[in-house]
Design goal:
Elements: H1 2-13, E1 21-24, E2 29-34, E3 39-44, E4 59-62, E5 69-74, E6 80-85, E7 97-102, E8 107-112, E9 117-121, E10 124-134, E11 154-158, E12 163-168
Antiparallel strand pairs: 1-12, 2-3, 2-10, 3-4, 5-6, 6-7, 7-8, 8-10, 9-10, 11-12
């Protein structure tokens, strides 16, 4: 009852309560790269920053991408990514979905990439053969999927507009 009175007073006085705001949700990705001297999986918390070496905690060296089967690799951060690629994945054209993966937090859809160079390191060009994107986009209407724990009075929820909806927690 007390909250209702405060809300009505705030509304009538022109003092607004915290209103929902949208902030762009970044897309996580894992690139399976061929660096000439080695193969690796590179994790990017923000795929728009995938043009640089992600750092040793976010890279995992593999002997093969295991097309036609599955593989897993543990990053320096301790997170393990497991994947399955179709047996014809290497022969598919760019942007074709060729498999999927899971990192212990959420699932990823994997696509044949166009072998563009992500970065050069120690003289090796690292080309993206496959890219896996997280599948959190558009899975939650009405804040059913909470993507961060409540903190500082806010909780972040995904919506179908590829953004995080930041909602105030009443009484938090």
């Amino acid at each position: 009852m007390q909250f209702t009175k405060l809300a009505i007073v705030a509304l009538l006085s022109g003092v607004g309560l915290a209103s929902p705001t949208l902030s762009k949700r970044v897309r996580e990705s894992i690139h399976m790269v061929n660096c000439g001297s080695h193969l690796a999986l590179d994790f990017y918390a923000d795929d728009t920053l995938d043009n640089v070496f992600p750092g040793s905690n976010n890279e995992c060296i593999v002997s093969s991408f295991q097309e036609g089967g599955g593989g897993s690799c543990t990053f320096g951060s301790g997170v393990t990514f497991s994947w399955n690629l179709n047996k014809d994945a290497a022969s598919q054209s760019g942007s074709t979905q060729v498999g999927g993966g899971f990192n212990g937090f959420h699932t990823f859809n994997c696509f044949r990439d166009d072998d563009h160079t992500l970065y050069t390191r120690n003289g090796d060009s690292c080309n993206s053969k496959y890219v896996c994107f997280d599948t959190l986009f558009g899975i939650s209407e009405n804040c059913a999927q909470r993507v961060t724990p409540p903190s500082h009075g806010y909780v972040a929820c995904l919506n179908s507009l590829d953004a995080r909806l930041i909602l105030p927690i009443i009484g938090g």
